[in-house]
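Question: Now follow the chain.
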Amino acid sequence: MTAAAPLVFADAYDMSRPGSPFSNGFEGETWMVAWCESCQHRSDCALLDVAYLGRTPSEWIELDPLSLRNRYFCKAWILDTDTCGQP
């Protein structure tokens, strides 16, 4: 299985929503461990760059605002078969 082309930062930023996706670093880190660690895009993710700038990527669909691990579903997430993890 080949990795999908990473999103381009400018496009991801333009499509993002105003407002930080997480209220603090702990929330963000908890979500990223659950999702990003097992994703093929983890080393070059434009969506994370957008989030670090205080905007919410449009590819992150809010599922449960009270859940740290499953607050968002990432439409760009692709399982990295080398890590074999799942969110």
Notes: Residues 2 and 9 are 21 Å apart (CA to CA). The radius of gyration is 12 Å. The chain has a mean pLDDT of 89.
